[in-house]
What we know:
The protein has 400 residues and is mainly α. The protein has 18 helices and three strands. Helix 1 (2-13) runs antiparallel to helix 2 (21-37), helix 2 (21-37) packs across helix 5 (92-112) and helix 8 runs parallel beside helix 13.
Amino acid sequence: xxxxxxxxxxxxxxxxxxxxxxxxxxxxxxxxxxxxxxxxxxxxxxxxxxxxxxxxxxxxxxxxxxxxxxxxxxxxxxxxxxxxxxxxxxxxxxxxxxxxxxxxxxxxxxxxxxxxxxxxxxxxxxxxxxxxxxxxxxxxxxxxxxxxxxxxxxxxxxxxxxxxxxxxxxxxxxxxxxxxxxxxxxxxxxxxxxxxxxxxxxxxxxxxxxxxxxxxxxxxxxxxxxxxxxxxxxxxxxxxxxxxxxxxxxxxxxxxxxxxxxxxxxxxxxxxxxxxxxxxxxxxxxxxxxxxxxxxxxxxxxxxxxxxxxxxxxxxxxxxxxxxxxxxxxxxxxxxxxxxxxxxxxxxxxxxxxxxxxxxxxxxxxxxxxxxxxxxxxxxxxxxxxxxxxxxxxxxxxxx
Length: 400
């Protein structure tokens, strides 16, 4: 089975996803499957094996990596020790995600002719997404107006010691872009392009060009490849002034200095926002509220304003749906249509303070020095060990 898993993962790498966090999660889930039921031929798997795996997931400890004594143990022993220690287990949503990864492997194997039917088809995955009343549970909660007021509190934003901490949440709030789509942008991905309206009149629009084309970039699906208009509110806040500052520093990345792990730099931004800014600084403890919830807020706002599904899907980078009309007859939303919708949405009023030119110059200087160190080390044939980004500025420096 492990050989077939390797083929499955290699097949996924041929598409635009490359090494995303989702593919890493898939690899971990499939490795856990092999540990649980053994590296047997996939044709020998039975529904009983599926139940064994589902039962193991129900007892699998949360954040196993934080418990070194569990690191090298086989999966059944990990579960046995976790039960004895009464460790908290992974949530139903995570269990559901693991099962979906395994189902994808099984369905792919059916297409290849390796198995006649998916042995996991008898696991009712819908129950993993239902609440105590039997209703389908949303993956995330939306931010309330009070949440947003705390997140974008000017006093707190003045303390942000890196440009991605200031800009990434704002971009996510006003465009709904995924965190990795934001964090992996190059300067050349923010470009002004001509678009024709229905009357053939040309409009120059500054857009975020989301592609997997740059070094280290990836996208979630082929529908994620899109152009998102830069909202006027970001321009009013001084986004173009920030771009000038970054360009002057010599960086080709929009947000230099972020460590790029496998799959991109989005994880670093999420860890700061969710673990530090949201939980510790803003006091928003609900685990169902994360940086990704900004997408939920924007999508809900569009739905409440009766924005057509085709435009919502275009903004979010989703497929148009499964219906024949949507897939075949409804035209794709244009950049100008998306721009019109985003500019008309009634976002909650926030007392945002504009970006001051030069605010992050010291940070950008340190990022440039780190970049030069990397280039020099690689040119000399050495192994470059990336630091955790440039040293942060002191709060006194930021507020001065």
